[in-house]
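for the recovery benchmark. tokens below, seq after
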């Protein structure tokens, strides 16, 4: 039976898991109940090995194919954590935890990968080993990095990684993917400008932090427009300006600027960090003030390997026909990038239909995407390690 038909059969069961996760959302590394249920199900499916507590609360399941002539290992990854958002979907299985909801569809990703694991464990129609990876703390906690640092790649000798995210606004069950960058490196910076506060009517006796900060806000834009190759992509946004004064007649002693810097390749990322630091400190110096720049690197670029992307497209096309390969990368960040930094692989978007955008209180994962999503995960294993 074609993969997709088997998943159509499994749809009620996978949907029930998904809705159970939806009803019981957990944040960051606190995904204890979710990880417990994932492990229990993986054992029930007959996985050859199930390990909990990888990268604190991550779960790894191992499924051996009928043969293993080449020693190849394919890793499939899903994320398990929810968001600190008050749910407004009105569905009967809405979150039972006030202020927490699955607003990014990680409940769906986890359920789809469980479905693939069940199918792979019952068919084992491949030559090698499939490793299913359920990570905590995708939403800002770097759970993917925690699993990598806990030895994920070497312990299970993973050769390739494949991950998936749902995408509202795309037809349900259809796929989009491209080679190269899919998601941005997402960094943040804080610039503390210190001068000499005083009476606003006596600027000559002060060092004006407000004027200095204003010049910095304008000048950092020249990093993108003048230092970065125009054919490359970068964003610098200064989003917060705050001072230690609320009076209209006081020059503040300190002004703080906060913002984000996004890029799609490692060299541009270095240039952004260097440029923001150079411009801020030197503008401040020119004004007689000082600027302290704290630049914090977030998730790296999510980089799809060229060949792995081709394989991913082939599998996706076999499931839902035409694959959208003309989509632009997104400037959001994604924690799966830490796994793709270790081994080649690919990250694909699966359509969630005409729903609210992710991270919105009215968002809900679309269960109709399950057969396509589970088929893609399982299909990657069968395609990359065809039965001997
Ligand atoms: Ni997400």
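predicted aa per position
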């Amino acid at each position: 039976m074609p993969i997709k038909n088997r998943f159509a059969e499994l749809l009620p069961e996978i949907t029930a898991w998904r809705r159970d996760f939806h009803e019981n959302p957990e944040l960051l590394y606190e995904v204890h109940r979710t990880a417990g249920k994932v492990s229990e199900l993986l054992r029930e499916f007959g996985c050859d090995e199930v390990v909990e507590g990888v990268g604190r609360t991550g779960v790894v399941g191992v499924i051996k194919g009928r043969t293993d002539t080449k020693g190849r290992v394919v890793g499939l990854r899903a994320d398990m954590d929810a968001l600190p958002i008050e749910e407004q979907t009105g569905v009967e299985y809405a979150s039972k935890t006030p202020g927490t909801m699955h607003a990014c569809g990680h409940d769906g990703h986890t359920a789809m990968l469980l479905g693939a694991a069940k199918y792979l464990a019952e068919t084992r129609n491949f030559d090698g080993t499939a490793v299913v990876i359920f990570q905590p703390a995708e939403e800002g906690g770097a759970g993917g990095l925690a699993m990598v640092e806990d030895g994920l790649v070497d312990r299970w000798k993973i050769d390739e990684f494949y991950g998936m995210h749902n995408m509202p606004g795309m037809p349900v069950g259809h796929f989009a993917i491209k080679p190269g960058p899919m998601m941005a490196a997402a960094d943040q910076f804080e610039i503390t400008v210190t001068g000499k506060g005083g009476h606003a009517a006596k600027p000559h006796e002060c060092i004006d932090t407000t004027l200095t900060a204003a010049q910095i806000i304008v000048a950092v834009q020249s990093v993108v427009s003048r230092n970065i190759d125009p054919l490359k992509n970068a964003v610098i946004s200064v989003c917060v300006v705050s001072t230690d004064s609320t009076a209209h007649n006081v020059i503040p002693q300190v002004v703080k600027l906060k913002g984000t810097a996004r890029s799609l390749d490692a060299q541009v990322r270095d240039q952004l960090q260097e440029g923001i630091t150079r411009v801020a400190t030197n503008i401040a110096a020119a004004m007689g003030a000082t600027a302290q720049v704290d630049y914090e690197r977030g998730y790296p670029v999510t980089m799809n390997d060229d060949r792995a992307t081709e394989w991913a497209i082939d599998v996706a096309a076999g499931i839902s026909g035409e694959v959208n390969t003309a989509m632009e990368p997104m400037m959001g960040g994604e924690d799966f990038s830490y796994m793709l930094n270790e081994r080649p692989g690919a990250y694909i978007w699966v359509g969630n239909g005409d729903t609210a955008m992710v991270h919105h209180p009215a968002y809900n994962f679309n269960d109709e995407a399950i057969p396509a999503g589970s088929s893609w995960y399982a299909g990657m294993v069968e395609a990359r390690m065809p039965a001997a």
